[in-house]
Design a protein that fits this description.
Strand content: 15-25%
Number of helices: 6
Shape: globular
Number of domains: 1
Largest sheet: 5 strands, mixed
CATH class: Mainly Beta
Length: 299
């Protein structure tokens, strides 16, 4: 499987209307009218387009990557509510599940990077950030509570398992902070980041037949007043809900924005989306791995 993992996609209905669209540019054809010639005009030389210099993805050696991971653990411990390093047994299980999902999808880890691992097990509902190395032992950075798709409620999908990439073939966006008919800000307060993981197939959680449909898989905050306290149990329509402070942390340190940082060097849309005061980590990644420890029989 090539490095860009899954680009099919799947997302919460609450945020679908806010997805950015790109207007197509019509190509010139021979039938387009040409401007009339200007008598005795001196042709101006064509200005050469400046070369686009795309910065490489950050690449640290194992020791430097582990030091950076330890620094982020310290920051998360201070900034993220309900942050945990998990027990040694739990850490081993997180790493085994992450390895298993990455190997099953033939995903290539070719540089030291953070992988966001989410366990959709109804009894777990946690995220664990993992330092993945191309040649070396992986390690746990830490994690906290999240919410994934809820079953038994109409139009609510079960968050799919797999490996999903925050690629530059689609552009995330920011919450407008508007309320629905129930007074709920479905994707969080104004300015919260929404990561768009594309269209994906997911099980319709309200149907006994386990029929599948497509949704837009997103990672976003939730209503800080009414819904954030419910994190830690299934509650979403299929997306991955994270605490507001984790949302801000991921945004500020560019946890999933390795490719977006590259795109920001040549595309104004990515520069506009990323925070101006951001401090991207040198082990930023772009992968989200969703696992389900309740159905796994191999680890």
């Amino acid at each position: 499987m090539k490095r860009s993992v899954i680009t099919l996609g799947l997302a919460c209905s609450l945020g679908a209307a806010a997805l950015a669209s790109i207007a197509p540019v019509r190509a010139s054809t021979v039938t387009d009218p040409l401007p009339p010639p200007v008598p005795n005009a001196i042709a101006a030389p064509l200005a050469a387009n400046p070369a686009v210099v795309v910065p490489p993805l950050p690449a640290l050696d194992n020791d430097a990557a582990r030091r950076e991971a330890a620094r982020l653990t310290g920051l998360m411990r201070t900034d993220i509510p309900f942050f945990t390093m998990f027990t040694p047994a739990a850490r081993d299980r997180w790493l085994a599940l992450a390895h298993q999902q990455v190997e099953q999808t033939n995903t290539i880890i070719d540089r030291a990077q953070i992988v966001m691992v989410v366990d959709r097990n109804p009894l777990v509902q946690r995220v664990c950030f993992v330092l993945a190395l191309p040649n070396g032992d992986w390690s746990v950075i830490g994690g906290t509570r999240v919410s994934t798709g809820q079953s038994g409620r109409k139009y609510y999908y079960i968050t799919p398992t797999g490996v999903f990439e925050n690629g530059v073939d689609r552009l995330g966006y920011r919450a407008e902070g508007t309320k629905n008919e129930n007074g709920i800000r479905g994707i969080g307060a104004k300015g919260m980041r929404v990561w768009d993981m594309g269209w994906q197939w997911a099980t319709k959680g309200w149907l006994p037949s386990h029929e599948k449909g497509e949704i837009r898989l997103e990672i976003h905050a939730t209503d800080p007043d009414f819904l954030e306290s419910r994190l830690g149990r299934p509650a979403s329509e299929g997306c991955i809900r994270v605490p507001a402070k984790l949302n801000v942390f991921m945004d500020h340190y560019g946890i999933l924005d390795a490719e977006y940082e590259q795109a920001a060097s040549y595309d104004i849309r990515f520069r506009a989306l990323l925070p101006k005061n951001r401090q991207p980590t040198s082990i930023a990644g772009d992968l989200v791995v969703v696992v389900d420890s309740s159905t796994d029989k191999t680890v």
